From TrEMBL:
Residues 12-113 form the Cyclic nucleotide-binding domain. GO terms for molecular function: DNA-binding transcription factor activity. It comes from the Bacteria. The lineage of its organism: Bacteria, Pseudomonadati, Pseudomonadota, Alphaproteobacteria, Hyphomicrobiales. Signal peptide: none annotated. This is Cyclic nucleotide-binding protein. It comes from Bradyrhizobium macuxiense.
Length: 122
């Protein structure tokens, strides 16, 4: 799914956040003020004890809470050492308003995740 890559947001001069393997990035129920792009490493998304997804570099996560202003719907944990690019709500809103292609990529990511979830439910 190369079209949904967010590698453009992970350039060399971008400020990153390092999380060691096993570290919690955010917990289900917490308030959110940023989403993340994975620059390197792998992240597990869990709801309760159920793994929802294992995410690879150049993908985003944590975007739902910025879109609907609700608390985090899942817990994100570093499977490996992870280098993340945090994107603040202000940056996210700017990207969505100024870059229609970015907004479309976010929507495609959400749609793909919804389709994957629906396959597991029905």
């Amino acid at each position: 799914m190369a079209d949904a890559s967010f590698s453009l947001l992970t350039g060399n001069s971008i400020e990153t956040r390092l999380v060691r393997a096993g570290g919690v990035i955010f917990r289900e129920g917490e308030q959110a003020n940023e989403l993340f792009v994975i620059k390197s490493g792998y992240v597990r998304i869990q709801v309760g004890n159920k793994t929802m997804a294992d995410l690879a570099p150049d993908t985003i996560f944590g975007e739902m809470a910025l879109i609907d202003n609700e608390p985090r719907s899942a817990t994100a944990t570093a499977l490996t050492d992870v280098e993340l690019v945090p994107v603040s709500e202000k940056q996210f809103l700017f990207l969505v308003s100024q870059t229609p292609h970015f907004a479309l990529k976010v929507m495609r990511t959400l749609a793909q995740r919804l389709r994957t979830m629906n396959k597991g439910v029905y």
